[in-house]
Structures are given as C-alpha cells and as structure tokens.
Amino acid sequence: MSVDLEWVAVLRHGQSTGNVAREEAESAGADVIDIAERDADVPLTELGREQAEAAGELFAGHPPDLVVTSTYRRAWDTARLATPDGVAIVPDERLRDRELGVLDLLTSHGVRERWPDELRRKRRLGKFYYRPPGGESWADVVLRLRSLLHELSAEHAGQRVLLAAHEMTVFALRYLLEGLPEPDLLRAADATEVPNGSVTSWERDRDGGFTMVLAQEVGHLHATDTPPTADDDAARQLS
C-alpha cells in the first residue's frame, strides 16, 4: 500500500502484569491465565515502566512528530512514559491488541484441552485467516491498521510517526509496509521475538516503499541497565 510517511516505528509496551501471569501459567501447565482485569486494563509492572522510560531516552535526541497509542492501558502508559515533552500523543482503538474471543485467558494447554475443534479449524484455515469465535484473525488486525495508516498518511504526510502498541502490530506492519506475502510473514513471525520495550522501525525509500532499519531493538534497554523481557504473547502463542 502507498504510505506517505517518512518514518514509522512501533514501541512494544513495557512488561505488563499480564505478561508475568501468562508466563507463570504456561510454566505451571495451567489451563487459565490468572488475570483479574479485562485485557484493556492490564497495567505495567515496575520493570515495564522502567522499560518505557528507557525508550524515552532513545527518542529524546530525535523525537517523532506524533505518537499514536493503543487504547489499552499498558500501551498508553508506555507512550506517556516514553514520549518526549512537546510531542502529541493520540489514542486510537485501531491499535488495540488482537482480540482472542473464546480463547482469551487460556494457555496453550488450555486451548488444546478445551477447544480441540478450534485447533483443527485453525490448521485448516491457516493462522492468518483463522478467527476464533468472538475474536479476530490476523487479517482483521491488518485491516484496521491499513485504515489507520491511510488516515495518518493523509493527515501527517512526510512526518515521523511512532506507534505505541503490541507484538501483533509489528507483524501486521511488516505485511503492510514491506509487502511480505502471507507465507513469508508467518515464517518471520515464528522466528521473531518482540521484547517488551523494544523498537522496530521502517524508513521510506525513494521508490515509496519501506525498509526496516531497526528490528526489535533493545539497545536502549541495555544502555540504561534495564532488563529486556519477552513472552510468547497471544499474537503467536494462540494464533
């Protein structure tokens, strides 16, 4: 697609209490992840806040023109902590995490035990187009991000835009900005870890396409002695 932006980057939110709970549930072989809040309200951990602040050091020297954030608390709080003074932060629900419907709060073991028919349906459809009941497919996420990029391109042409969002956002943007075919995208996703607080960015080429210039960068975390963290979040684990 044609995108008239100079630079696009994704800052994955810092570590959240949901990330920690998911790791604990998976390690214990539990069926259900113990999270009291709805997904939109899951907060950052203290480490997650430190990761977001470390990202702010990265952007201080060359700030974006605009920050657009997922409306989920963990991403919005990350944006607030990482955004340099004077840069506008705009929330947009199209950047929310992928919705999992009936698979929400289930571990990999829980999905296998409780929804074996859905796993068979996913294998038949392929994970790009598979949509769990009440949830979204990868293609659904791509469609809403396509809409957002079109709007940003029209209203902020030639500008540098930072998206504070989720792991799934990185893969969706590879599809949209780099034009990766579905098989290549899924292979890349299977082989790619997107740490909390990492930055992935693309610059516009002379021909109007985009090239990735930072791939899940965590150098700013190491520079501030902030431990990076990663988990097999819902974008990969249950898709």
Automatic annotation (TrEMBL):
Domain of life of the organism encoding this protein: Bacteria
Region of interest (Disordered), residue spans: 220-239
One Pfam family recorded for the sequence: His_Phos_1
GO biological process, one term: glycolytic process
This protein's record includes keyword ATP-binding: no
Keywords: Glycolysis, Isomerase
E.C. numbers: 5.4.2.11
Entry's Gene Ontology molecular function annotations: phosphoglycerate mutase activity
CDD domains from the UniProt entry: HP_PGM_like
Binding site for substrate: 74
PANTHER family: PHOSPHOGLYCERATE MUTASE
Family label: Belongs to the phosphoglycerate mutase family. BPG-dependent PGAM subfamily.
Name this protein carries in UniProt: phosphoglycerate mutase (2,3-diphosphoglycerate-dependent)
Species annotation: Amycolatopsis eburnea
